[in-house]
TrEMBL record:
Site (Important for catalysis): D146
Listed name of the protein: Glutamate dehydrogenase
Residues the entry annotates as binding NAD(+): T190, N221
Organism taxonomic ancestry: Bacteria, Bacillati, Bacillota, Clostridia, Eubacteriales
Keywords per UniProt: NAD, Nucleotide-binding, Oxidoreductase
Organism, as annotated: Desulfoscipio geothermicus DSM 3669
Family: Belongs to the Glu/Leu/Phe/Val dehydrogenases family.
Transmembrane spans: none
Alphabetized PANTHER family for the sequence: GLUTAMATE DEHYDROGENASE (PTHR11606), GLUTAMATE DEHYDROGENASE 1, MITOCHONDRIAL (PTHR11606:SF13)
Positions of the catalytic residues: K106
Key word NAD present: yes
SMART domains in UniProt: ELFV_dehydrog (SM00839)
Binding site for substrate: K70, K94, S350
Domain Glutamate/phenylalanine/leucine/valine/L-tryptophan dehydrogenase C-terminal span(s) in chain numbering: 183-415
């Protein structure tokens, strides 16, 4: 995460602005500005060479007025306490935007997971869960995968928590493999939810998706699946994609299936046959109908926002656009689908997984996707209608206002606000 742009301060300022616009008491902002609990832990891991290495980890639980905390676990070198606090706050807002009975949580470990062996990674996963186990539970705090974690890591974590509890509690972790209580459709959920919001935005703005041009920053799980769905199901032309090694560009459109296979074999999108190598900065400035930033935070800033040449920016990542950039894009009539709406498909299907775990009854992938579409369409419509109604706010402001109003109602009913309600 950029050292110059603090994501936690960004989300705090946005909360302040939206509480004021909603006419709510300042107490609401004071409560929502800080997480209810932040845990900092040290995790000793025996490495394959016999040495002991101590890793630093965090878990932030932002607000549980609407239900148990919910949010991913990130393994990345740039993880910090402020980052997980910001991400847990975003999760509270995200869950409220799609009207889920959850509050926000987020965890992380400072590590480059690519440098660990499978055994070292497993030991780190188990050590992290042991360290935060007292604050976890299906009715307390439910983690999920994030950057640097996946179904396998969730399987190890769920198993470690079962050892801690002395019995299986599948609902404590979501994003698990199917055989141990995972949900069909979960792997594609974040990307599919993003695509559902893009479709609604296209309808609202009169954009024809057939042959619409798309640029995707980040070709990990979210970006690659979004590119695949948009090209295969909507007939879009994906002009360029990037990963941590560089970017591949083809003005005639990339063959996404072939590109996915190429990256699997080589570990990079750079050098894909028939494509031109460009920088990530050049990729962000390509003329296109839809730009999907699906990498990390603070990618579209005040320095490059005036060079963005898209009609719609759909945030597959968390916090890819800074407030200064948001204002510039709004003035240029570029519609930004904010992260708390556009990438809420992941937590929505995590919620479905949690429900299925609680019931012990599992849905078909078609049922999961149908339910996801309903949730995303309802969320988009509530945010877009408020955006159009106010006129002086952007889509991010509208999404925050929808979310904060719902969390406020929950806190009010529970008596958290005293006589200030």
């Amino acid at each position: 995460m950029s050292q110059e742009i603090n994501c936690f301060e960004i989300v705090q300022n946005l909360i302040d602005d939206c509480v004021e616009k909603l006419g709510l008491d300042r107490t609401v902002a004071e409560i929502l500005r800080e997480p209810q609990r932040v845990l900092s832990v040290s995790i000793p891991v025996q490495m394959d060479d016999g040495s002991i290495k101590v890793f630093k980890g965090f878990r932030s639980q932002h607000n549980n007025a609407c239900g148990p905390c919910k949010g991913g676990i990130r393994f990345h070198p740039d993880v910090s306490m402020d980052e997980v606090k910001a991400l847990s706050t975003w999760m509270s807002l995200k869950c409220a935007v799609v009207n889920l009975p959850y509050g926000g949580g987020k965890g992380g470990v400072i590590v480059n997971h690519k440098e660990l062996s499978p055994n070292e990674l497993e030991q780190l996963c188990r050590g992290y869960i042991r360290a935060i186990a007292p604050v976890l539970g299906a009715d307390m705090d439910v983690p999920a995968p994030d950057v640097g974690t996946n179904g396998q890591t969730m399987g190890w974590m769920m198993d470690e928590f079962a050892r801690y509890r002395g019995y299986n509690e599948f609902g404590v972790i979501t994003g698990k493999p199917i055989i141990v209580g995972g949900s069909l459709g979960r792997v594609e959920a974040t990307s599919r939810g993003c695509v559902f919001t893009i479709r609604q935005a296209a309808k609202a703005t009169g954009l024809e998706l057939k042959d619409a041009t798309v640029v995707v920053q980040g070709f990990g799980n979210v970006g690659s699946i979004a590119a695949r769905l948009l090209s295969r199901e909507d007939g879009c032309k994906v002009l360029a994609v990037s990963d941590s090694t560089g970017a591949a560009y083809d003005p005639n459109g990339l063959d996404i299936a072939a590109l996915e296979k190429f990256k699997l074999e080589t570990g990079s999108v750079v050098g894909f046959p028939g494509s031109k190598n460009i920088t990530t900065e050049e990729l962000l400035q390509l003329e296109c109908d839809i730009l999907v930033p699906a990498a990390l935070e603070n990618q579209i800033t005040g320095e490059n926002a005036d060079k963005i040449n898209a009609k719609i920016v759909a945030e597959g990542a968390n916090g890819p656009t800074t407030p200064e950039a948001d204002n510039i894009l709004a003035k240029r009539n570029i519609l930004v689908l904010p992260d708390v709406l556009a990438n809420a498909g992941g937590v929505t299907v995590s919620y479905f997984e949690w429900v299925q775990n609680q019931y012990g009854y599992y849905w078909t992938e078609e049922e999961v996707n149908e339910r996801l579409e309903r949730k995303m369409v309802e969320a988009f419509d509530s945010v877009y209608s408020l955006y159009k109604e106010h006129g002086d706010i952007n889509m991010r402001g509208a999404a925050y206002m929808v979310a904060i109003k719902r969390i406020y109602e929950a806190m009010k009913i529970r008596g958290w606000l005293g006589n200030k309600a």
